[in-house]
Amino acid sequence: MTNSSFGTLLYGEHSLRLAVLLALAALALPWRPAAADSFTPAQRDEIVRIVRDALKTDPSILRDAVMALQADDATHQASATRDAIGAVRDKLVDPQDPVAGNPQASTTIVEFFDTRCPYCRRMLPTFASLLQSDPNLKLVYKDWPILGPASQIESRALLAAQKQGGYLRMHDAIMTGPPLANGDAARALADRLGLDGAQLLRDMDDPAIKTRLDNTMALARQLGLQGTPAIIIGQKLVDGAVELDELKRDVAEARAGK
Length: 258
Fold this sequence. Notes:
2 domains, five-stranded mixed β-sheet, 13 helices, 63% helix
């Protein structure tokens, strides 16, 4: 095929915009080297000429190409995330995990959160509204203290409060209050909430609590999580704070097996 006939084929059988997108993909995508290598040097020169001429005429083509590459990358990332979730499905929810909502619900949301994370705090009323509107949901909390000493203290206090059946009370208080600077602050808060503060302080040093936090850290690494909140609904990972309508849509998709 000559250079001129190659260019005629691109222009004749496809629109200019599609031709340029295909050319950019052939030349730029690192995961498709065979496509790029299949062109002769003369054909590659013709593609470059076509792209340059087209971009002069319509620069928005480059934007479309970038958007197409981003969409393709997002598709690959979503597939990798589904595979990662599937690989840890049997240990994603532990019987010891604290639960809000309906413990017997058939649909589960898992939230990896840090008590000091402002976006996790923003999700508190959103999750409350979601659970109130949908009685067939349970929210599993994964305490993942990655934001410093206060996070560590507060996560240990939460799991210690769970031993007294006070996890949710302590959770709401911590997530809406100032940082707990030390164990004494955690004990005082527990007393105000009607828990046994002295017992909570002792339980905070239980090696079993450290093991649970270490296991959550290992699980987050297996999933490739980058920060909090990290919300898993079905096979989907939701990064960051989202609105109620988006959560409802994700729940519906999970129930539909999507």
